[in-house]
Amino acid sequence: MGVELLPQNIRDTYQIEERHHACAILRSDFPEQWNDLITVLNDFVLRRSHVETRGGNKSPIARAIDALFFARHWTEHSFNIAVTADGNQTLAPTHHVDYWKGRVAIETEWNNKDPFFDRDLTTFRLLFELNVLSVGIIITRADELQQVFDDLGRGAAAGQSTTHMAKLIPKMRNRASGGCPLLAFGITMRKYAPNS
Predict the structure, then answer these.
(1) Which of 104, 112, 97, 138 has the alpha carbon at shortest distance from 27?
(2) Nearest 10 degrees: CA dihedral of 104, 178, 2, 96?
(3) Inside any domain, residue 140
């Protein structure tokens, strides 16, 4: 079993990639987070008006996903990690995740530059190795959504160097997240509402 544990409607509307039994771990050990994730993925609608909106600090698409998770009491979270050698602190990196709830972290990468995936996977790996994180999840777009951007005259803003599944999957397969159980969802055309 793997992604087959997800409801059929989720498998029909998202491109899904999994590593290290993430679905089984979520469903058995974190049922609340599992149910939240399924609810959010079901409720999310990719609205044409949101795709057409330009610029800003955070896109309407990312804000819509924020609202769905925050309504279920997920929070943004920063981890302050101190590294010491011989009693001296040598590095104190801070790692931030978009949504956090009980050892499960979720990142949303909507139309960022693809190196953001490297940052997310490195964060997941480190937090997993420190026994803070059990499952990491990334929500991004499926490659096929490029057609929506092209049709709306936004193709240049969502090109091949931005975050989408074709950029993420090779990084997952190359074990960029180490042994961290990992789940990725690419939003497909079947979540797109062209009249909204």
Answers:
(1) 104
(2) 20
(3) yes
Task: Report if pTM > 0.85.
Answer: yes
Task: Determine, yes or no, domain membership for 2.
Answer: no
Q: Which residue has the tokens 């509307």?
A: 13
Q: Is residue 1 part of a domain?
A: no
The Cα angle at residue 149 between residues 60 and 66, in degrees rounded to 5: 20
Residue that has been written with the tokens 């939003």 in this structure:
187
Structural domain harbouring 74: 7-193
37-70: b or e for each residue (b if 16 or more CB lie within 10 Å)?
bbebbeebebbeebbeeeeeeebebbebbbebbe
Neighbour tally for 172: CB within 10 Å? 19
Give the chain's domain count. 1
One DSSP character per residue, 99-116 reads EEETTEEEEE-SS-BTHH
Phi and psi, residue 179, nearest 5°: -90, 10
- Tell me the pLDDT tens digit for each residue of 8-66: 999 999 999 999 999 999 999 999 999 999 999 999 998 988 877 765 677 888 889 99
Q: Which residue has the higher pLDDT, 57 or 84?
A: 84
Do 21 and 2 contact (CB within 8 A), yes or no?
Answer: yes
Looking up residue 110, the CATH number of its domain turns out to be: 3.40.91.20
